Amino acid sequence: MTIPSDSSPDQVPPERFKGPVVLRRSEMARRTSDQRFLDQRPEVPGDFTRTDPWRVLRIQAEFVEGFDALATLGPAVSVFGSARTPQEHPEYRTAREIGQALGRAGYAVVTGGGPGVMEAANRGAVDVGAQSVGLGIELPHEQRLNDWVDLGINFRYFFARKTMFVKYTQGFVVLPGGFGTMDELFEALTLVQTGKVTRFPVILMGTAFWSPLVAWLEQIVARDLKIAPNDLELFHVTDSVEQAVNILIEAHAASNGSGA
């Protein structure tokens, strides 16, 4: 067998992560850990690594790795938004400015580690020498942590990853995004509404994008008493990066001053 003198591929192949495991080429066809965990179809008979008790150990390991990596993070804010936002879009520029402003204010910037708005916020943090953190997730399609993440963790399970966002950050800044962004937004609001977390600012950046949603919450959801009127005070809507950061600073100063 003749071995070519240059055996490296012409292009870097697509890849995705299963926790610390990297999958490329045909291996990418494997189902995700969340799919197998939530799917009711029977697994391969006799394969103990596909049983729920084994998964519990794997889930435990994700929490341990996350706690170990983030325990000394210090003050931090999560920035969420679309992975599909191109670099030339104004929302990318806004997210980068948010990352810069948060970094200057002494916060680490935590994102989902992907492209688009997440990349922009991480990039902004790096611009000013702040900590830039990415919490990635195993997805069925190609994905990797963006190049502006300095501390990155890849998770198999969404719920372990979501715990890290809430446990190690003191607020959310949410830019326009899709289902994933909405999921993170409403989970945060639910945790604040139910008192699971306290003094946790949630800031929606982009009045043009968020105003229709806010109007629906006011005119339909609150009017029909599905939420209390004061639940609409659980979040702030703004176009100003400076105002967003000031809201975070003031909320955290009030929290520290209360001794809570």
From TrEMBL:
Biased composition regions of type Polar residues, renumbered to the chain: 1-10
Catalytic activity: 9-ribosyl-trans-zeatin 5'-phosphate + H2O = trans-zeatin + D-ribose 5-phosphate; N(6)-(dimethylallyl)adenosine 5'-phosphate + H2O = N(6)-dimethylallyladenine + D-ribose 5-phosphate
Disordered, as annotated region: 1-35
EC numbers for this chain: 3.2.2.n1
Record bears the keyword Hydrolase: yes
UniProt KW Aminoacyl-tRNA synthetase keyword: no
EC category name: hydrolase
Domain of life, per lineage: Bacteria
Keyword annotations of the record: Cytokinin biosynthesis, Hydrolase
SUPFAM superfamilies, per database record: MCP/YpsA-like
Membership in a protein family: Belongs to the LOG family.
PANTHER family for this protein: CYTOKININ RIBOSIDE 5'-MONOPHOSPHATE PHOSPHORIBOHYDROLASE
Name of the featured protein: Cytokinin riboside 5'-monophosphate phosphoribohydrolase
